[in-house]
Amino acid sequence: MQVTRATTSLSSRLHGSNPRVYHPSASRSSVPHRGSLAPSTNRELRLQCAALFNLKQLFSGGKMGNSGSSGGSSGPSGWTPSSSTDVPRKVSKSGYDITPLTAEERGKAAEGLPRMAQYITLEHGTERAFTGSTVNGYSHDNKKRGVYVCALGGLPLFHSDTKFNSGTGWPSFFAPIDPEHIIEVADYSIPYMPRVEVLDRRSGAHLGHVFDDGPAPTGKRYCINAAALKFVPEGEELPEESKPKH
User: Fold this and answer.
1) Deepest of 17, 30, 180, 220, by most Cβ within 10 A of its Cβ?
2) Which residues of 157-196 are buried (b: 16+ CB within 10 A; e: fewer)?
3) What would the pLDDT profile of 9-23 be if each residue is shown by its tens digit?
4) How many angstroms separate the CA atoms of 148 and 160, rounded?
5) What is the CA radius of gyration of the chain?
6) Catalytic residue IDs
């Protein structure tokens, strides 16, 4: 198949005649490459490799792209719902309520979401590259200034100032609004390709994955499903659930 041959050829360019398994979550320092390749060339090849991997997933009918974790009815690993609404409230350093929702609150909040958003946030699914849009209709490559909040629960997650064009087809950011607003969990759902899954701290919603091939100043690439987000343009009032608590 053409995709397989292209992947093999690209792997050979990256690793020589005896290619090893490569994945986009590898750090720049750990990616083997020929000394004659410039850093910018290496970055382009890494992005091409990631794109080809997603194509293989597409043709094989599997879950694609920056996600791929198998869903489960027992809830996402790394996050536990509150036992009741009477638990002590937790507030992030930036002033937002990050108390986990109860299972009932989470289910009620998910009822009004589009099916794709439910699939991604609750079942660890992934939208196809270059096709995603937020739950309120903004494209994955939206360039307007504003804040991206979680589609499930409304916790502010990313600001447009940290968004960049990664070439992958998913919204990419180099930093969250507040590190306390997300949970990072080891993900071994794809054999030989360990990754770090990103969850919303308040709702436990699956957002995407984070990789170590982003731009300065963090070197991180938060590769996020657009359908897991709601975009609030600059100048518009944040929903009540998305406002700070002090």
Assistant:
1) 220
2) bbbbebbeebebbbbbbbebbbebbbbebebeebeebebb
3) 333 333 333 333 333
4) 7
5) 18
6) 223
